[in-house]
Prior knowledge:
Layout: H1 2-12, E1 22-24, E2 33-37, H2 42-57, E3 62-65, H3 75-78, E4 83-84, H4 89-98, E5 112-115, H5 118-122, H6 130-158, E6 166-171, E7 175-176, E8 179-180, H7 185-191, E9 196-202, H8 206-210, E10 215-223, E11 226-228, E12 243-249, E13 255-258
Helix pairs in contact: 1-2, 4-6, 6-7
Amino acid sequence: MTDVLTHMFTNFMSRADSSKDLKVIPPAPAQCGVLVVGEQNLGRSVLLLAAVTAACRLSVKVVFFAQTQIQSLPVSLQKCVPSLSPESLKELLQQVAGLHESTNTFPVPPSLIIVDRLEDFLRGPADESHGVEQSRAAHLSALLCDTATFLTGLLEQQTSSPAPCRVIASYKPKEQSGEFSVSDQVLDTLDRYFQVRCTLDQDRSYKAAAAGLQEVWHIYFSGTGITLDPCAEDTEVKPGLAQEWQLSIYPDGLVWFGAEELPSPDPR
């Protein structure tokens, strides 16, 4: 997962920001990945697609779980991204557990597991107690981490230079009066298993519209698994450090990753 993050940003960010050294501290197997937090939107979809693209460029096998199948996936990515569409949490648990037998399906075990829209699988009836949903979140997260650890062991046996299997999952927090609730206990549960949180926040300012952009998203990385080392001589690890990036989407479909400042109307 760490090499996917590094590759994704160094290949999609602007050249002006390429001098930055993105250092990602590999999480322990029990804390296995990145949780993408934000609304169900174009920005989140683009971020996940960019991660898939980066993984495929690294020849990493990807498995993508979502209740809705991936739409219009580029042909170049279809071969390396099997897409599974479980309709319920029970089916998702069964399919993730089935990855323990993935050697019967894939010549090389997957190195990246993506689960889109966790909330669709976790949420039950409106009158259901919060404890039940938290229990579901813990069960699914533990299975994902256990599966990632198991697949890492297989990769170490089968490949000469193995990278650990990691997980990316996306989650939309519960809303309270139009804003994300700061007391989402399910999110707190997920944070115990995912060492890096990636939070997406849409920029609705006039400045973004004036730049001729379709959408602008601020991307905040935080957690003990990531740190920024802008100075080569600074080797101090700073757990929990938050880092901000920007995702800009142009009307013609161009996607731009970079630092916090808005790009010019044509960054090409």
